[in-house]
What we know:
Chain A is mainly alpha-helical. Chain A has 6 helices and no strands. Chain A is 76% helix and 0% strand. In chain A, α1 (2-25) runs antiparallel to α2 and α2 (29-49) runs antiparallel to α3 (53-76). Among the domains of chain A are: 1-78, NADH-ubiquinone/plastoquinone oxidoreductase chain 6, subunit NuoJ (Four Helix Bundle (Hemerythrin (Met), subunit A), Up-down Bundle), CATH 1.20.120; 138-168.
Amino acid sequence: MELLSELIFYCFVVLTIGSAVVVVFHPRVMYSAFALLFTFFGVGVLYLYLAADFLAASQLLIYVGGILILIIFGVFLTSSIMSLEILQETHQRFIALIPIALGGIVLLSVILSTPWTTTATTEAVPTTKLLGRLLLTRYLVPFELASLLLLAALVGAMRLARYFRTEE
Amino acid sequence: MTFAPLLLFFLGGAAVVFAAVFLSRLLAPQNPNPVKNSTYECGEETVGPTWVRFNSRFYIVALIFLVFDVEVLFLYPWALNLRDLGLYAWIDMAIFIVILVVGLAYVWGKGDLEWVRLRGSSAGSAREE
Lengths: 168, 129
């Protein structure tokens, strides 16, 4: 059972990383956007393995169901998408290597210096109800503030969208 | 694993899709001819490229959708606790939704939900630039 679970985990790791590679390297922007679907989905499954089921559900609902649609519409809005000559290219590979190397060194040193303690795996429990209870009682103010934040995001995004539309 | 049923659900869904495609390939008679193989779109040959630039209105509606998508996400943990917390939880969510309805009223009032704009020049269908 444990082995099967691990096997499935690695399948989804391959799916996530593989589709992420497609996102970065595919020359057509549209296909990159579609590959992003599998990356988001794979990340959602990884959340499940961390026993964060609500986060996994929100990943599916918000990223796969919402943000990805937005990205695909964004690609559709690209001015010369029909010419199919708009391909992704990579420029300045050698200059890009420097920040990548620096970031890689930092990541590696963090990975090596962190004491990775392993604990016995406990059975994951559904967290949604617990989260809801905390949100409605102890964290009520942040919860209501979240709706204010959403309101601000909506109004701000609409203002910007309208601004750019009148420019056209 | 607690979430194994979820995996089975997804596998079942995928299996149904693949079975439908595979079975129709297996069972359907294969005798193609040029007319059958021609591209079919509502009985018409397509004119011009099919990759058109979308109207930006789709993007704006998707943007509005995203905000209310996040709102719906918060409804799930709330709904699981509604029976225990009762009226208190109901009022909490009512405040939450009323704040967001202000946003809905804003986009409605400003005419962002109007698909065809009567004033201004950008009226038209999705196929228009």
